[in-house]
Design brief:
The protein is an alpha+beta fold. It has 16 helices and eleven strands. It has a six-stranded mixed sheet, sandwiched between helices. The two termini are about 35 Å apart. The relative contact order is 0.17. The N terminus is likely disordered.
Length: about 450
């Protein structure tokens, strides 16, 4: 499962990166010929079950919801992990430059047609995926499929258009939240390369992503794909997938190694220090261990569940009796063959040392009891259900599971695994693990990693 719900909001925004999405238009107007009775009748049909088939190397999945709004997406197993050393940041550039002119349509033509029909075309990417999503009313999406096809497999990357949109890439870098910057440093320290590659382009590469570099990245990584739809008949989705032309050669991805024991520090001044500590978790290829890491994340505490609420978790002891406001919460990130589980801390520079040392102690030897595990299981189940509640998150969940597992695992199947996990299973996740650390901000009093072991 592409367990995006295991991530805190700031980590999820890194993976989805809505700031970099290419969006058009708002909502479509109602067709004049529709009557009130016909509108009501559209909602009387029940939601159908998930259907999956294969078209060449492409996995096609769809759920017919019988609702007016439809979503059609093409996801590729191509993210920052798949970048070469010479093309660092190309996945970020690809996301920013989505929706530009293609071999079949101009940028103006794509924008005009999408906006005229009240639709939305966006691009989202993470460390292991890039996705193009088309949202439109059911009666308009068939006409717009051609533009989704052009945007995904017929991109031209005209050099004058790339230079015109460099400002968007620069703005996306500037808008990175501090939490995202810290976690990018943590991934670099933990994995060095591959998953350690940032989902943001480095500053020295801004403006250096050429047409050839982007085309090579697409040719090498856009072979493994998944076409997913919510609110469309399966036959229509299969027909659309058959029109897509992908590279025949599927590039091999090297297994990822967690190195651990590394530390990256970046001084930026200010009043606060931001520190992330992590141990190796488990990847999506080990469902039980991955869910055990997700339970540890929630047992540690993942912040308040409601606005102005109070966070519950064993990490509360790390910030207890601190003279100034400080926060420590757990996080986890699961990828195809590896993962991270750890603690993120924000505190005034004068008390960060105490918070960091307490948090490191709790992370390496978590005092979890039955009540903590029960609360963690309830929280994880709620997160999973809510992740499948809306059409866009459900769409992404199906697509990422298809890319990583070649099948979709239902909530009921995961619920059985969650119920079977014990305290011993949760503690086993971090046994013998090596700490990795990243710090950002005013780090003058942040302890070094060797002081936390």
């Amino acid at each position: 499962m592409a367990l995006q719900p295991t991530l805190n909001p700031y980590i999820r925004s890194m993976s989805v990166v809505r700031q970099g999405a290419r969006s058009f238009a708002a909502a479509a107007a109602k067709p004049k010929h529709e009557t009130e009775d016909s509108q009501k009748s559209q909602h009387l049909f029940p939601r159908e079950s998930l259907k999956t088939s294969t078209v060449g190397n492409v996995i096609v999945s769809s759920v017919e919801t019988n609702k007016p709004l439809s979503r059609l997406a093409v996801y590729f197993r191509a993210g920052s992990r798949h970048e070469s050393e010479e093309a660092t940041g190309v996945a970020h550039a690809l996301r920013i430059f989505s929706g530009l002119g293609t071999s079949g349509a101009t940028q103006f033509g794509i924008t005009r047609n999408i906006q005229f029909r009240g639709a939305n075309l966006s691009c989202t990417s993470g460390r292991e995926h890039t996705g193009y999503i088309l949202e439109a009313t059911r009666d308009k999406i068939k006409v717009l499929e051609e533009f989704l096809k052009d945007t995904t497999v017929e991109q031209a990357f005209k050099h004058w258009e790339l230079s015109d949109h460099l400002s968007r890439l620069k703005l996306d870098r500037i808008l990175r939240p501090i939490e995202a910057r810290t976690l990018e440093l943590l991934h670099r320290a933990a994995y060095r390369c591959g998953l350690g590659n940032s989902i943001y382009s480095p500053k020295y590469m801004v403006g250096k992503h050429t047409t050839k570099m982007l085309q090579n990245f697409v040719a090498e990584n856009f072979a493994s794909a998944s076409v997913v739809a919510v609110g469309l008949p399966h036959e229509q989705v299969v027909e659309f997938a058959g029109q897509l032309k992908f590279p025949q050669k599927i590039s091999e991805v090297q297994p990822q190694k967690y190195h651990g024991g590394g530390e990256i520090r970046k001084e930026s001044g200010g009043q606060f220090a931001y520190v992330a500590l992590a141990l190796e978790g488990h990847g999506l290829n080990k469902p039980q261990e991955m869910l055990a890491a997700a339970l540890l994340h929630r047992a540690l505490g993942s912040g308040p569940r409601i606005k102005y609420g109070v966070s519950k978790g064993i990490l509360n002891a790390a910030t207890k009796d601190t003279p100034l406001e400080s926060v420590a919460s757990g996080f986890s990130a699961s990828y195809s063959d590896s993962g991270l589980v750890g603690v993120f801390m924000t505190a005034s520079h004068c008390c960060i040392e105490k918070v960091a040392k307490r948090s490191a102690e709790i992370l390496q030897n978590p005092p979890i009891n039955d009540d903590d595990l029960k609360r963690a299981k309830a929280t994880l189940k709620a997160d999973l259900v809510m992740a499948l509640e809306t059409g866009d998150s459900y769409l992404e969940e199906i697509a990422l599971q298809n890319l990583h597992h070649k099948k979709f695992t239902s909530f009921e199947e995961y619920e059985k695994i969650i119920d079977s996990i014990t305290i011993a299973d949760v503690k086993k996740v971090i046994q013998g693990g090596k700490l990795t650390m990243a710090s950002y901000g005013n780090i003058s009093k942040v302890p070094y990693l060797d002081e936390l072991k």
